[in-house]
């Protein structure tokens, strides 16, 4: 009840597209009843969660913050949501996002932008963005409305808002968590993400949702071993090697972020870890490769929205062709339309090798860079964890952010985050506040594929 009251008071933040109070009460009663009758305790009994509005929820609208899906009510549940509910969690609402998860601000939603709870004022465009595209879930957790949030992460959409809102944001290994029922953006990079206020809350959620799913053939078939976090005082950093990739010292990095990054590296070294500089030489190319691959997959994924089977249908009966065209013209915003056009251009027969194929090759080089630092044949060269900033600055003001085009926004916002999606490795944003003043800053930790246990253990030590 309390969480829902708060949600109503905090409605100015615009974190939710839909609140689900009746469902929340029903789910809470169900888990209480289950306990009463069968003495069966769910690992998340009564834990309030908010789910990004691109995860299908049976009987509850799933809009992707777009006109195209404004009235879409899925007939099935995303696996992530189903597993949360089976573990006893309670859905308090579906959260705001950039349309079809294309963006990094949660400013491009037909329901209006989400405002950052850390803003000095929520008036007169003087407020900060929440980051995106999963800004609604990040704010739902940061403002104390609920314990955990679910987002998606294709190029940084969980870690970016986690950094700006001062919460933990985890992008697990690609394939560790099912994408079934997550409306796709870039199938080869999309991963469900987790927002929580602490590493241990994040682990509880991950343990409930991870593992193979026969409804998603890209899930890793190996059984999932739940993560057990050691107590902070039992964590021994003496065998841990931390890499600081020099390519992340890039233009636009603010002095505060640089200071925070250096400070945490020093703290890890003082704690016994070996900290050394490493190189991921293809990092600067990553943003271009991401942009090409993203737009090509978008061009293909968005083809399903034609006004025939589901979603928005324009009022046009001149011809099927006209109906498609009008439906798509009305249903998509300009960001989506631009990506469809560019993607189709890159995929033209005469351009295919020049763009798409080349981008795939460079993607391999980017993934190899990570492999070289985690699994080098010369074992002395290896590191276990990479430490970088999550974003170049703290949360920008809305008015400054929207003065840039979506492409320029992403080029800055995704710089540090999207390489991890190229390689499918796990990455986490940890909130750091060196002083009580100012906005939160996020540092990113990355580990080798399926090394969530180590990633979360080191994070817990820092926390
Ligand atoms: N900003 C990136 C984009 O717009 C990342 C989005 C995401 O991770 N969903 O594509």
UniProtKB/TrEMBL annotation:
The keyword Ligase applies. It comes from the Eukaryota. It is an enzyme of class 6 (ligase). Keywords: ATP-binding, Ligase, Mitochondrion, Nucleotide-binding, Protein biosynthesis. The active site is at residues 52, 133, 157. It is found in: Mitochondrion. Its main location: mitochondrion. It catalyses: L-glutamyl-tRNA(Gln) + L-glutamine + ATP + H2O = L-glutaminyl-tRNA(Gln) + L-glutamate + ADP + phosphate + H(+). SUPFAM superfamilies: Amidase signature (AS) enzymes. Its EC number is 6.3.5.7. Residues 11-456 form the Amidase domain. HAMAP family: GatA. Subunit of the heterotrimeric GatCAB amidotransferase (AdT) complex, composed of A, B and C subunits. NCBIfam families: gatA (TIGR00132). Allows the formation of correctly charged Gln-tRNA(Gln) through the transamidation of misacylated Glu-tRNA(Gln) in the mitochondria. The reaction takes place in the presence of glutamine and ATP through an activated gamma-phospho-Glu-tRNA(Gln). Belongs to the amidase family. GatA subfamily. This is Glutamyl-tRNA(Gln) amidotransferase subunit A, mitochondrial. It comes from Musca domestica. The lineage of its organism: Eukaryota, Metazoa, Ecdysozoa, Arthropoda, Hexapoda. The gene is LOC131803746.
